[in-house]
């Protein structure tokens, strides 16, 4: 028998009606409780929580709700950034490289200028000074693939002192402000989430395979002048420029230069080589170093076994093959070397010292020196795969170990930056490594499931290590169910159970994975293979289902578990933090490989990849400014009888602008002064057009005769001049054949059981007149247009919905009462007004209140010229003059006489 008294409908109504709540909330609460029918204890708990929430949502008298509303909207939307020293992957025209986001954004703002936008300094970068290339970053798309996309904007703003540090199970870390967006996957959809909402156990994407950048193939040789300044070293090419009278840079005065030009020196400088200032014939290295396998291997060998002195570079290793490759590299650059045996207290060693001050200076500049300070050179990240594989082989030949017992390939170093760089290079080859750190060293481990790929792409040059790697690969192939706690696929919803149920496969196989929402990649591959076999046995075609599984298996990321979330105090309050805005796909990747979501620019509209709308801070600004021309106007068009895709396509063609260029190829004959148009029959019939439908608007607009031969149209200008022909061609392309002029594109998307149209551009009034469009649900993202067509109430709701959807897309939550206040104020006079000095703020009755917002001097001068009087009725003006405001006790003019 239940320990709780049964609650009846009468008891629920009596309890709720006794509460101090508005009638609307009471009615809603009663309806919910009658639907749930809780017991007595549950009813008490629900009522207590509702009352607490209602009281907490109250506004105190004199509370500055306008300021709170503005802060609640603006603050989360602008404080979403990375600290200055956080590394990010970029392509500046010379292949992929790692840069500090602060340094890069500061340089871009200095080069292209910045605009102050609500406390943030925003820059739109153009072609960079290096190679005239645009800035690109690797970005995660909705299919789990990493592609390179252009950076549209970058920004910086002062930090409020808050910072989160996330650590994942694979050892990756990222620091960002609490409101910075990351991405997760839920029910198969990748979407943003604020860092403050993440918890331990959540999974975020980390790159396991980073494709080549767009300019990687062009980087086959390294220009050493980027690392050895021309005003400190002789470059043979610069001497040749001086001899030819071209602009040049040399490290000596004119007298010494004249000696070289006149041949009054002991050694001539050859073009294509670099020399010290005090030079002799053999002291030289190439101006351009080929990014080949031998050079890559030597860089890796230096990182593992190298040391430097002012005049030489030493590589220490006892393996004969290792030593021979060092000698081969020295010979390829025509450098002398010496060999020495040594004993450093724990084992005998052998040093090969390459005699070159230039090589030593170059290596120290690009790789650092000392075990704690070495790093992977920046140019290596954008180098060809051959160079990267050889660099890794040189490093692993020196410092790498293969443990067949622990089934892992690992390295260790005192340099955290070096380990991060090696991990990133492995990612270029599709090899995922995990990282761990102790007080003394940093360790990088490659799980044995990547052993085969490591053997193919990197391998070992040392026989003993290669034999151990072969053994590890063999054990990996023999083990049927290798477990990898790192390489997981997550957030797939119920797709695995749905596929299993459809094929008659026991659901228990994937039930556990569905509950916890993650599964190992190899386990997913086995499930996929089993589904394919079951489908063949049953004679069922499941290409769509297999494609979903293949897409998850082939993703370029792992879904790495968050194991630690820390709150940090650095950078300090007032320091700059930074962010990117990425074209189309909204994400970029840090140097640790963590995928992070940009917050300030565009986002695919309703999941439609072809239609972009401005979101983030720029979208908030244009809504609150009530701009007449939004940057990306879009309509959401619902249909009557929208379940038919064919009908949806017909309506789409009726809306989308169709010109002659969409229907065929236009050719201009400048000799015969004729323009011909070859009509594409398929395109014409696809748009439900006939030849008369095309010819009639052309004749009406162009006023010229049109000769028709089959599906070929021939047009001649009225005057037989080349200028008339050119003008006719321009006018021809502008003629509207079908659709609406302002709608260049329409995309069809299925939403549940119906098809919905999304338009690029708006013409709401015209669209509502098209047969098949549902006028009761079709909307525009332009509040001004909503006001013109549907009235001020529709505009008010449009403003509120657009602001809320913009914030939700960025993973932010703002109490809707703030948004309602802003939208009510913007529309309360029957028209849509902005919240700036040309709108609400400029209409304040108080002179001082207007002056306190913007253009202070102008407001005061205008008021003085007109003889205006400020009655000091509001809050702002009374605070300015330092007297009590006329609210509360300040609103009563009673004096108590004793």
Strand content: 15-25%
Please give the number of β-strands. Answer: 43
Q: Structural class of the secondary structure composition?
A: alpha+beta
Which CATH class of the largest domain applies here?
Answer: Alpha Beta
Count of discrete domains: 7
Q: Which residues form runs of ≥5 with pLDDT under 50?
A: 61-79, 600-610
Overall mean pLDDT: 83
In CATH terms, what is the fold-level topology of the largest domain? Endonuclease I-creI
Write the layout of secondary structure elements.
Elements: H1 9-17, H2 23-36, H3 40-56, H4 65-78, E1 82-83, E2 87-91, E3 96-100, H5 101-112, E4 115-117, E5 120-123, E6 136-140, E7 146-158, E8 163-168, E9 173-176, E10 181-186, E11 189-194, E12 203-207, E13 221-223, E14 234-235, H6 236-244, H7 254-262, E15 273-275, E16 285-286, E17 288-290, H8 293-305, E18 306-309, E19 312-316, H9 320-332, E20 337-343, E21 348-355, H10 357-367, H11 385-399, E22 401-403, E23 408-413, H12 416-428, E24 434-437, E25 442-447, H13 451-457, H14 463-478, E26 488-490, H15 495-503, H16 508-516, E27 518-520, H17 521-538, H18 543-553, E28 557-568, E29 576-582, E30 587-589, E31 595-597, E32 602-605, E33 608-614, H19 616-624, E34 634-637, H20 645-655, E35 658-659, H21 660-663, E36 664-669, E37 674-679, H22 681-686, H23 691-702, E38 706-709, E39 712-715, H24 722-734, E40 736-738, E41 745-751, E42 754-760, H25 764-768, E43 779-780, H26 783-790, H27 792-809, H28 816-827, H29 847-853, H30 856-866, H31 875-881
Helix pairs in contact: 1-2, 4-28, 8-9, 8-11, 11-12, 17-18, 19-27, 26-27, 27-28, 29-30
């Amino acid at each position: 028998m239940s320990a709780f008294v049964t609650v009846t409908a009468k008891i629920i109504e009596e309890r709720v009606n006794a509460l101090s709540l508005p009638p609307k909330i009471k009615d809603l609460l009663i309806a919910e409780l009658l639907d749930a029918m809780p017991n007595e204890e549950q009813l008490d708990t629900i009522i207590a929580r509702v009352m607490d929430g209602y009281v907490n949502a109250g506004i105190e008298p004199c509370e500055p709700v306008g300021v709170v509303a503005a802060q609640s909207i603006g603050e989360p939307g602008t404080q979403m950034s990375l600290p200055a020293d956080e590394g990010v992957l970029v392509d500046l025209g010379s292949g992929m490289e790692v840069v500090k986001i602060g340094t890069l954004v500061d340089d871009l703002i200095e080069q292209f200028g910045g605009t102050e936008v609500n406390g943030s300094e925003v820059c739109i970068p153009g072609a960079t000074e290096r190679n005239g290339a645009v800035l690109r970053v690797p970005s995660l798309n909705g299919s789990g693939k990493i592609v390179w996309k252009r950076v549209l904007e970058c920004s910086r703003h002062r930090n409020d002192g808050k910072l989160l540090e996330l650590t994942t199970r694979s050892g990756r870390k990222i620091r960002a402000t609490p409101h910075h967006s990351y991405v997760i996957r839920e029910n198969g959809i990748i979407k943003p989430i604020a860092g403050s909402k993440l918890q331990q156990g959540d999974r975020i994407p980390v790159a396991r395979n980073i494709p080549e950048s767009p300019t990687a193939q062009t980087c086959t040789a390294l220009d050493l002048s980027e690392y050895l300044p021309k005003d400190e070293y002789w470059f043979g090419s610069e001497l040749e420029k001086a001899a030819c009278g071209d602009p040049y840079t040399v490290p000596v005065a004119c007298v010494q230069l004249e000696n070289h030009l006149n041949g009054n020196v002991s050694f001539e400088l050859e073009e294509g080589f670099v020399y010290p200032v005090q030079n002799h014939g053999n002291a030289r290295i190439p101006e351009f170093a080929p990014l080949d396998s031998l050079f890559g291997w030597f860089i890796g060998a230096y990182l593992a076994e190298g040391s430097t002195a002012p005049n030489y570079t030493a590589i220490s290793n006892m393996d004969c093959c290792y030593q021979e490759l060092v000698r081969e590299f020295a010979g390829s650059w025509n450098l002398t070397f010496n060999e020495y045996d040594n004993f450093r207290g724990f084992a005998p060693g052998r040093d090969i010292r390459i005699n070159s001050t230039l090589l030593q200076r170059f290596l120290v500049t690009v790789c650092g020196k000392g075990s704690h300070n070495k790093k992977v050179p920046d140019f290596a990240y954008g180098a060809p795969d051959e160079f990267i594989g050889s660099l890794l082989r040189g490093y692993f030949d020196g410092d790498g170990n293969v443990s067949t017992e622990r089934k892992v390939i690992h390295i260790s170093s005192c340099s955290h930056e070096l380990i991060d760089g090696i991990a990133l290079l492995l990612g270029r080859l599709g090899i995922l490594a995990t990282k761990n750190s102790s007080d003394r060293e940093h360790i990088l481990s490659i799980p044995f499931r990547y052993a085969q790929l490591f053997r193919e792409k990197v391998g070992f040059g040392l026989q003993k290590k290669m034999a151990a790697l072969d053994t590890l690969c063999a054990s990996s192939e023999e083990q049927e169910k290798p477990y990898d706690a790192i390489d997981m696929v997550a957030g797939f919803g119920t797709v695995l159970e749905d596929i299993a149920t459809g094929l008659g496969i026991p659901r228990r196989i994937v039930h556990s994975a569905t509950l916890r929402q993650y599964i190992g990649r190899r386990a997913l591959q086995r499930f996929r293979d089993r589904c394919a076999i079951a489908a063949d046995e049953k004679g069922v075609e499941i290409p769509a289902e297999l494609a979903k599984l293949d897409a998850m298996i082939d993703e370029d990321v792992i879904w790495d578990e968050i194991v630690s979330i820390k709150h940090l105090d650095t950078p300090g309050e007032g320091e700059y933090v930074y962010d990117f805005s990425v074209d189309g796909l909204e994400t970029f990747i840090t140097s640790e490989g963590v995928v992070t979501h940009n917050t300030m620019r565009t986002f695919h509209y309703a999941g439609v990849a072809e239609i972009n709308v401005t979101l983030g801070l720029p979208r908030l600004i244009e809504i609150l400014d009530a701009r007449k021309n939004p940057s990306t106007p879009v309509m959401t068009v619902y249909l009557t009888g929208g379940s038919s895709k064919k009908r949806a396509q017909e309506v789409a063609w009726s809306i989308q602008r169709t010109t002659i260029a969409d229907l065929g190829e236009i050719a201009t004959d400048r000799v015969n002064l004729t323009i011909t148009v070859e009509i594409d029959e398929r395109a014409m019939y696809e748009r439900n057009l006939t030849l008369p439908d095309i010819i009639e608007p052309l004749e009406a607009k162009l006023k010229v005769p049109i000769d028709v031969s089959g599906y070929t149209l021939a047009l001649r200008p009225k005057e037989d001049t080349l200028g008339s022909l050119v003008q006719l061609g321009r006018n021809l392309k502008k003629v509207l054949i079908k659709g609406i002029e302002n709608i260049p594109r329409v995309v069809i998307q299925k939403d549940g059981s119906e098809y919905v149209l999304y338009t690029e551009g708006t013409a709401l009034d015209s669209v509502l007149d098209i047969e098949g469009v549902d006028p009761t649900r079709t909307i525009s993202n332009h509040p001004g247009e909503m006001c013109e067509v549907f009235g001020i109430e529709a505009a008010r709701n449009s403003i509120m919905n657009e602001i809320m959807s913009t914030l939700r897309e960025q993973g932010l939550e703002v109490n809707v009462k703030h948004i309602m206040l802003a939208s009510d104020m913007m529309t309360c006079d029957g028209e849509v007004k902005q919240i700036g000095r040309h709108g609400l703020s400029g209409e304040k009755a108080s002179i001082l209140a207007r002056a306190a917002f913007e253009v202070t001097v102008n407001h005061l001068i205008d008021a003085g010229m007109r003889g205006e009087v400020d009655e000091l009725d509001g809050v702002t003006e009374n605070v300015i003059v330092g007297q009590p405001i006329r609210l509360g006790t300040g609103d009563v003019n009673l004096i108590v006489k004793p």
